[in-house]
Amino acid sequence: MQNVSATKSEFRPVANRSRVTIADVANDLGVTKSTVSRALNGYPDIAEATRLRISRAAERLGYRPLAHAQAIRTGRVRSLGLVLQIDSEDSARPFLANFIAGVTQAASAENWTVTIATAETATGVRETLLRLVEEHKADGFILPRTMLQDERVAALRARNVPFIMFGRTEDPTGCAWYDIKGEDAMRAATTRLASLGHTRIAHVPGGIEYTYTKLRTQGYREGLQAAGIPFDPDLIGAPSLTQRSGDASTSALLALPEPPTAITFAVDRAALGAYRAAQTRGLRIGEHVSVIAYDGVPEGAYADPGLTTFAVNSRHAGERLASLLIKRIRGTAPEELRELAPATLVERGSDGPPRLTSAELASRLKSQSRI
Amino acid sequence: MQNVSATKSEFRPVANRSRVTIADVANDLGVTKSTVSRALNGYPDIAEATRLRISRAAERLGYRPLAHAQAIRTGRVRSLGLVLQIDSEDSARPFLANFIAGVTQAASAENWTVTIATAETATGVRETLLRLVEEHKADGFILPRTMLQDERVAALRARNVPFIMFGRTEDPTGCAWYDIKGEDAMRAATTRLASLGHTRIAHVPGGIEYTYTKLRTQGYREGLQAAGIPFDPDLIGAPSLTQRSGDASTSALLALPEPPTAITFAVDRAALGAYRAAQTRGLRIGEHVSVIAYDGVPEGAYADPGLTTFAVNSRHAGERLASLLIKRIRGTAPEELRELAPATLVERGSDGPPRLTSAELASRLKSQSRI
DNA sequence: ACCCTTGCCGAAACCGGTTTCGGAAGTTCG
DNA sequence: CGAACTTCCGAAACCGGTTTCGGCAAGGGT
């Protein structure tokens, strides 16, 4: 026997607890491993009485199959993969906890687990994804925040690895997805503002590479059209995902010769920046400037006035994504796994009838900036 | 052959791609599997030349060992477990993304993965933890937010499963940990306020069950003592973790006959509630009421004035926790795996010399409430 | 020249399951 | 009553690795 531990970098399991194996169950009953395995996995060639005896014995002895031992033969580790892109500062934060909770809960319900990884860049995400695929750490993947052209989709599609998107994409072939109808929400937001009497309604989009941004902007334009308001490209603000950039974007819109009296935001966080922009100018949100946003972040409730927004249930999204993905892994065709859910309007105080017309607002802003 | 798929609930892997196995590498070189395995795992009884040949061939053929196939013999799945408690609304949110990023990054660096799960209640967490242990889905666990008496610790200790705490606990036997010295931060916050001239300094603690709360409150009291200010139990506010409860807690403190002119908060979120409380009363944070908090949430930077706080680098915490845990799993004694790191002071505008004495503040508040 | 190490690697068992194959009983049917 | 099916389960191979054991050849000591 050679002394191995000197060079070998890793060693034996700390706890080599005598776990009950399938052989123990078999011995206890005087049957073979294969019978136990088939009984527990619901094969039809096992007598019902035997199946009962076996499952009771397994229960009694506290037998738990080892997922990775099964995996070696079945090729299935019973795990869902989730690779998150965590860039510098901003992004998906607020929902993350709930989203993960949803995913893991639905996975647990089927006795699956979730393998999570992160990367900072898009290519980093791709590499990580491929590493997990290579080592088969997960049987399928959830792809959050899909983009119009998504390299993750391409990579997984090419390798024939099951996946589901949280979001949509340009080329839907072979794609399963769950998504929130952000376009409907933005259309509703716009018509709502129009029926309150607004005619200068702006829109501040989110990150341009994402599919949802295109859809939400599209919804805004549909809303405009439905209300008979002509589209004015000047009223599309700078893309914003954070409070800070939302502030900047709003400020720019208010500096327009014909400033908007209402703004729809693709993202709550950006809308929260509008509060600051308004406050700086002595304007009150919901009176001088109406705002409707999208996401449903908790801070929106505590803003003053409360932010009217279309909330998405990200926990539920996580749950649906997990169970759809499990179905996908089990063989359901992707075309049958496409779900869209509405966002729900949370009416608070940030929208109301225009107190000033665009022209009045403009002159008020101009007089102020002279001070 | 029987038709099985009718009853069996799950079936074959979707993609049975011909992956290259250790046998392929062995055949390619005319050696045996065992030689390849030992060469790749750094056993000393393999000639250096052979090792080189083998590792090059493995590289060339694109061989990646299957973690779960290794696990069946080694008992190690190369995965870290993380069970999060996601309660109703509030809690650990802001750091979560960075924290997870840190954990997964350090794990990836060693070619490990992270298995994540969530539960809503403490007992749910325990059950989930035990399920993961039973099925050996992870080789060890990271326990965030440890409490003075923590049932997770007890459960894992009893089963001899490696773990590391993010935080400390009452009985440290067999425990490894990484933690931020919140007590030092709160002491520094208090002495800082004292040296600015404050004498009525309050403290709003966090969740009482957590170890960190006890430590931070203790730090506050040490700071008081160092400044020669007697401790007044009235100045310990109601425990707060959210903006809303921070508002309430601050309001209660300001209603005191001798209100504090400065407040230390165990948690940023709660401190953000103080802004609201102050605004309602026509008070300005950093002038009439000074505030220093702890955590370093991004919103603090955008508050007006910016929140002075002791920031914790939760990403780095995640990294350290992951690498310490891996060491623990590899056999290092827990006593050698205990790290404490300081929080770093971020000076912004929420603290300053008292503009009013406590008595003046009280009378101003009283006159106001009459209106 | 002989024995004893030592270095290096092959053969085979093993880990904990799943799956194939075939055969012994029991049933059905002509 | 015998042949042909069914039903049900055992034996053994298999999955992709790791680890034990032993043996051969080269090297070293006397």
Automatic annotation (TrEMBL), chains A, B:
Pfam families: LacI, Peripla_BP_3. The keyword Transport does not apply. SMART domains: HTH_LACI (SM00354). PROSITE patterns: HTH_LACI_2. Keywords: DNA-binding, Transcription, Transcription regulation. It comes from Boseongicola aestuarii. This is HTH-type transcriptional regulator RafR. Residues 20-74 form the HTH lacI-type domain. Gene3D superfamilies: 3.40.50.2300, lambda repressor-like DNA-binding domains. SUPFAM superfamilies: lambda repressor-like DNA-binding domains, Periplasmic binding protein-like I. CDD domains: HTH_LacI, PBP1_AglR-like.
